[in-house]
Amino acid sequence: MKKENKDALRVTALLTVISVSGLLGYREIFLDGAEDLPDKVCDATVDTSIAERVLPGTRKVTVRTNQGRPGDDIIFSCSLITEEESILSAMAEMENSSLESWRRYYAGKEMGRPIDLAGGIKATSWPRDASIYIPCTPPHPEEGVGSQPYALTVTAGVFSESRASGDELRQAIVNIGFQVAERAYEVAECKEKTDFPPSPPRAVAPR
Known about the structure:
Elements: H1 3-19, E1 26-31, E2 40-41, E3 46-47, H2 48-54, E4 60-67, E5 74-82, E6 87-96, H3 99-107, E7 113-115, E8 122-125, E9 129-135, E10 150-159, H4 166-188
Antiparallel strand pairs: 1-4, 2-3, 4-5, 5-6, 6-10, 7-8, 8-9, 9-10
C-alpha cells in the first residue's frame, strides 16, 4: 500500500473515533472554552493545560473519550474539539508492527525529529503530529498472525486551526500523545515491562 494511502486511512480512522463514540466511549461538552475544562479530561488522562495552549478561543469544547479492551484494535483515544471544529487528539492502536517497519513507515515524512528515550519506547514528532511506538503483546495474542511483534502505536495531532505554533505546538502534541500512550499501556495489559518517563519527553532539544 502506498504511503499516501496509509496516511489517509490513519487520519480517517482517527476522525472516525472522534466522530463516533464506541461502546465504551462517551462525550462531555463544556461551555466557555478550554480554560473552564476540569484539570484533567478523558478519564483523568490528559492535562487540559495542553488544550488551553493549543486550541483557539471558543465558546464550547467537546471532549470525546473511547476506551477498548486488551486485544482490541483501538485501545484508548482522547479528543478535544472546539465549536469551530479545531481538534487536538491522540489515539492508541494495537498493531502487528516491528520497530523496523514503524521506522520505515515514518522515515519518509519530512521535518521529523526523533525523540531521545531510554528503553523500548520510540517516538518522532512533526510540526502538527507525532507518533509513538511501544512494544506491547496483549494477554491473549491471536494465533497465526505472522512473525511481526505486537505494539501500541499512538498517533497524536492537531486538525484545523491552532493557537500555538512552532516548537510550542510540537511539544504540546508530544505531551498529549505520551499521556494517552501511558493510559493505553495500562488498558492493553501489555506483557512487556515498559518504564515510561516521569513526564512527557522534550520534543525540542534545549538550546
